[in-house]
Write a structure and sequence with these properties.
Layout lengths: L1 H4 L4 E6 L3 E6 L7 H9 L3 E9 L5 H9 L2 E8 L2 H13 L6 E5 L14 E6 L15 H7 L6 H11 E11 L4 H10 L2 E10 L6 E10 L6 E2 L3 E2 L1 E3 L6 E3 L1 H9 L4
Parallel strand pairs: 3-4, 3-6, 4-5, 6-7, 8-10, 8-11
Antiparallel strand pairs: 1-2, 7-9, 8-9, 12-13
Helix pairs in contact: 2-3, 6-7
Length: 254
């Protein structure tokens, strides 16, 4: 079945929760960011959710495997990735809990989901258009850069599609945290929970995970920073920290 579904540019990897993931050999591949974001989402077993900018659909698949939400719609603007996401859903047997929507998030409305959503999850493009090295692959360029929507566009779309009091989970770059906070405020989101993720205790944070509530009041809980690795006594080798290992083992944050 896998061989029939794959093109020469694709491969299948087994990732967390024993998910078989079709990925492009020259495309964006499964990363720690996606896993941590899925683990950061607090379970709402009756909730209807969407993943904005889903890529290959791995976040939706992880959420489905853990039964975090009742149903997840994976929204992807690049046709190549939307097709892969649909095949990943079928490959892993999640057709009853995950659906794929090939759409630009900037065009979305609640009617696309049969009504307002309870939760939206997003690992959006984190670099400004024109910043950083240019990828020779258009798919990577679009996935990494704000070409098909800025962080404000993603927050605007989320505010439009969420119920009042609904939650938005994001993973973002700490050096652009000001942009995320401005986009959340402009769209009437209140940050409620946040954690900075570091490779190790002597490194600056690499990503920040945020939970925000549409129409929420002021007041945010900042979790202790997550250090992914502990350095060995010789200061060279790195081992997965006890807290990071617990998150990998349980699929849940503290």
């Amino acid at each position: 079945m896998q061989d029939m579904m794959l093109s020469p540019e694709e491969r299948v990897d087994v990732v967390n929760e024993n998910i078989r993931l079709i990925q492009r050999k020259n495309g964006l591949t499964f990363s720690t960011d996606a896993f941590l974001l899925s683990a950061f989402c607090r379970p709402q077993p009756k909730a209807r959710a969407a993943d904005f900018g889903s890529g290959t659909g791995v976040i939706a698949l992880l959420l489905a495997a853990r039964q975090t939400f009742a149903h997840i719609t994976a929204v992807e603007a690049q046709e190549t990735f939307a097709d892969i996401a649909a095949r990943n859903v079928e490959l892993n047997g999640f057709s009853h809990t995950v659906s794929v929507l090939f759409r630009d998030v900037r065009t979305l409305a609640p009617t696309d989901f049969g009504g307002e959503l309870d939760v939206i999850v997003s690992n959006p493009p984190y670099m400004r258009a024109g910043d950083g090295a240019v990828s020779p692959y258009d798919e990577k360029q679009i996935a990494r850069h704000e070409i098909l929507g800025t962080i404000n566009d993603f927050c605007t779309a989320a505010a439009k599609c969420l119920k009042y009091g609904g939650k938005l989970y994001t993973v973002w770059r700490p050096d652009r945290l000001e942009s995320l906070m401005a986009a959340l405020r402009a769209n009437k989101f209140a940050p409620k929970r946040m954690v900075f993720v570091h490779d190790s205790a002597d490194k600056e944070p690499a990503v920040v995970l945020t939970e925000a509530m549409l129409g929420g009041s002021e007041g945010m809980h900042i979790l202790p920073p997550l250090f992914m690795h502990d350095k060995s006594p010789n200061g060279v080798e790195k081992n997965l920290s006890e807290r990071a290992q617990r998150i990998y083992d349980t699929g849940r944050f503290d």
